[in-house]
Design a protein that fits this description.
Strand content: 25-35%
Order of helices and strands: HEEEEHEEHEH
Number of strands: 7
Oligomer: single chain
Number of helices: 4
Radius of gyration: 16 Å
Distance between the termini: 24 Å
Largest sheet: 7 strands, antiparallel
Helix content: 25-40%
Length: 161
């Protein structure tokens, strides 16, 4: 299978991210690329990070053909989704310098951050995006499980492997 891109900027961004990750001393040994989607997985410390290159059609400039790079890590599975947890995550989001907590369709707690792709994509920003996601996921998994139950994503990964 081959990857289908929505536009040329998404393809260019994908190639830049692939080159960066495969040559980076931080990520090259733990990076896996997907053959069917513009996505990479990185196991870094105890966090699995998905790095996706996505088209950005609805944007402030109403310019077609932009792309973003989104880094996302599952923090916990099965935490009690209740008002206290939502208040906690929203309060913590206010403190974040990069990225934010969110829930996926299965009510798993994720942490994600994005950077603008394209020809002028800054590799330091990309690295910061990935490392901020890793750091927050690794820091908050224990805190959230202790306060709100559930299971750390890394524990679930080790069972599934």
């Amino acid at each position: 299978m081959s990857i289908t891109f929505a536009n040329n900027v998404q393809e260019l961004t994908y190639r830049k991210v692939a080159e960066y990750l495969s040559s980076s001393n931080l990520f090259k040994d733990s990076m896996r690329l997907w053959s069917e989607a513009p996505q990479f997985d990185i196991l870094y410390g105890s966090a699995m990070v998905a790095v996706e290159v996505l088209p950005w059609d609805v944007n402030p400039w109403d310019t077609p053909g932009l792309a973003i790079v989104r880094s996302c890590s599952c923090v916990t599975f099965g935490s009690r989704i209740e008002t206290e947890l939502m208040h906690y995550l929203l309060s913590e989001n206010r403190r974040m310098r990069f990225g934010a907590f969110q829930l996926d369709e299965k009510n798993q707690i994720l942490f994600a951050d994005s950077v603008l792709g394209g020809e002028n994509m800054d590799l330091m920003e990309l690295q910061t995006c990935i490392l901020s996601v890793v750091t927050i996921a690794d820091t908050y998994d224990d805190i959230i499980v202790e306060k709100f139950g559930g299971q750390r994503a890394v524990d679930r990964l080790s069972v599934d492997i």
